[in-house]
Amino acid sequence: MSQKKQSFLDFRHYKHQDLVSLFQTAQGLREGRDDHWKFQGTAALLFFESSTRTRISFESACWRMGLGPILLDINSGSSLSKGETPEDTILNVAAMDPKVVIIRCGSDLDLEKIDQEVKPPIINGGWGSKGHPSQALLDLYTLWKERNLEGLKLLIVGDILHSRVASSHFEVFKTMGVQIAGCGPAIFKPKTPIPDFQWFDSLAEGLQWCDSVMALRLQLERHSEQVQLETENFRKNYGINKNNLSLLKPTALIMHPGPVNRGIEITDDVFNDSRCRILDQVNGGLYVRMALLKRVLEGA
Ligand code: CP
Fold first, then answer.
1. What is the pLDDT along the chain (300 residues), one digit of tens a residue?
2. Ligand 1 neighbours (beta carbon < 6 A)
3. CA–CA separation, 264 vs 244, rounded Å?
4. Which of 61, 132, 140, 236 has its CA 20 to 30 A from that of 45?
5. Which atom of ligand 1 is nearest to the CA of 49?
């Protein structure tokens, strides 16, 4: 394989300056200043799990960067239904010489190994509970373009244990100086120690501590029945709503990676709060993914 291949499975190759440079590229694209990159060829999107935001924003990003996106999703009818494995599916699609392969899959797939076996670079579009690095990038970009990140205190509320988004946040946010704390019932607390990570059992205390807050969806599909019974309890004690928003700083941003379960982790009121950036995250995600494609394809 070429030494120059720049797959994006996690943040191991991303230092502070790489992140700033990527965000500056995204900002230029968003403001319509830097839209002259026109790649040629195809991009394969292989989504073995459901997605709306990641899939559509990568498809849009590919079109806007001059790449033709070719999509295979779990529901689209493929030879997976005839017993072909996801690994063989990836190897076969990669053999058609796309410029890049964007994959969403479960933790059971070994993307590191597959990356060694295929010619095109791979982008992680959400890998089981291991990580969702492009989501972490767009979340960080949402904060970066409005706030000074050095020393910024971010509270993540909810199901951190099962969240691939949170796994990627822990990997990259510290690089930009952001401190992360978690909040929720003890069953959602990470089981492995995370440096400089603190935990709030009380949502009120967490909201008063933080400079910005991110709510996470209860990952019901990854839970046992016993944990599912906690939903009502979670809504009452950890749901963000009009009343507890008053505890949050006026300058705080409110985020959620989506999909949102309205009425559980946040109420409808939250969307009307001037600090809410949930759709802004989605908008930024398009430009961050365009910038990411540029970096991966140019081997920056
Ligand atoms: N945030 C996110 O990954 O959303 P989708 O599952 O809809 O892609």
1. 445 789 999 999 999 999 999 999 999 999 988 777 789 999 999 999 999 999 999 999 999 999 999 999 888 889 999 999 999 999 999 999 999 999 999 999 999 999 999 999 999 999 999 999 999 999 999 999 999 999 999 999 999 998 999 999 999 999 999 999 999 999 899 999 999 999 999 999 999 999 999 999 987 666 666 666 578 889 999 999 999 999 999 999 999 999 999 999 999 999 999 999 999 999 999 999 999 999 999 975
2. 51-55, 126, 132, 135, 257-259
3. 14
4. 140
5. 6
Mutate to test the pocket of ligand 1, among 47, 51, 156 (most ligand atoms within 8 A of CB): 51
Atom of ligand 1 nearest to the CA of 257: 1
Instruction: Report CA Rg, the chain.
Output: 19
Q: In a mutational test of the pocket of ligand 1, which residue from 104, 124, 135, 279 has the highest number of ligand atoms less than 8 Å from its CB?
A: 135
CA angle 21–24–27, rounded 5-degree value: 155
- Round to the nearest angstrom and report the end-to-end CA distance of the chain: 17
User: How many residues does this entry show for the chain?
Assistant: 300
